[in-house]
Amino acid sequence: MSPNPKVLIIDDSPFDRELMKAALKGNGFDVTELSTPSNCLNHIAAEKPDLVLLDIMMLDMDGITALKHIRTKHDHLTLPVIMVTSLTDSAEVIAALNMGANDYITKPVQWDVALRRIQTHLTICEQARAMSQAKETAAVQAMIVTFNHEINNPLAIACFTVEALKAKYSDDPSISSLEATLDRIADIVKKIDRVLETGSFEYAKYGQNAQMIDLKKEKP
Questions:
Q1: Are residues 91 and 180 in the same domain?
Q2: Is 103 in a helix, a strand, or coil?
């Protein structure tokens, strides 16, 4: 988690925004703010907040509608949203929780409680991301082990065969071409082995809707 998690405040009340911003900054948070949720998706894409404080009752667009838009792009584990509401908004709170809000706090905000809730949801999301990354790494490593196991034996046989062909047909250029191809495959296998050893890899885009491990960026 960032040492200064970024919180986005969406509230059409300048007074409430200033109160929340002062409390959050005083507790080490990096704060951005919007007075209307109408452009919140573009703001979220640009600023990448770690958590959103979203007022329920706003004139331009109510918070539940804004939450619905946010949840089309970001689920409750990738971007926690805490609704900010008055004590009389119980029906709206239930609707927001059903829509995918992570939690709610009430106005006037009790900051000892609010900060604990904010930190709790940031921690939950960080742990969920770590678990997801661990599962992804384990799946990639299992795939690499399977791939290398399945390719190493036939590759060794092919290399042995090429050596035999070279002794018999030393002047045949196709043998040299085949040997170079097998050397390239062997080099790729070594790079994949290093990815398995380090557990560190990056993805590269492959085609329109797919990605692959970027062996050019594998770490030794």
A1: no
A2: strand
